[in-house]
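Hi both,

Apologies for the delay on this - the queue was longer than expected. I finally got the copper (II) ion-bound model through. Below you'll find the protein sequence and the ligand SMILES exactly as submitted, and right after that the structure tokens for the full complex including the ligand.
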Amino acid sequence: MYRCILGRIAVGIVTMAMFACGGTTDPTPVFSAVVVSSVWHSVIVGSSIPLTAIAKDQNGATFSGAPAPTWTSSNETAATVNASGVVTGVAEGTSTISASVTAGGVTHVGTLQILVVSDTNPVTYHVTATTGQAFTPETLAVHSNRPVTVTWTFQSLAHTVTWDSAGVADIPATANAQVSRKFTNFGVWSYHCSIHPNMTGTIVVF
Ligand SMILES: [Cu+2]
């Protein structure tokens, strides 16, 4: 749209504007790829996560009309996947989950590597909620192949840990205490103190 407007206001390139903005039809969508995605890239032994496979055309748009994928796990010792793309952790390790789609005689395969982690040995990291109204460190970035426990140490001024999105339980107003939350998947979680809105923090597990 932006280019379209620019094209229309530019004197002398009306033909180009017409070419860019209308009068032509997009090429017929061609089945070109399968993209596998998940909110989580890890799963705990004994639990399950859903994967999504989307057929794409040559422009990266969803290719409609493709049949359901066939799912496979490269390492069923670590993780299995069912016909719906639900991955279940079996034992610590990694597995490449594949979704194969055949449409119009053409097959494309999308993959996603899933890490299977044990819940028995989380790694603990620390954040301090200070009397100076800061979460220190403000961003805690953790590279871990295991579930991560973050322990907040609240100093004498009460703060909350209020998540900007769902998924982890909020910590209500707390002072002079330690409170922990566990992160069992990769992701980015941002939070703030509901008492001091300028107090913000982020937990990154990757
Ligand atoms: Cu606060």
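Main takeaway for now: The chain is about 10% helix and 50% strand.

I'll put the files on the shared drive as well.

H.
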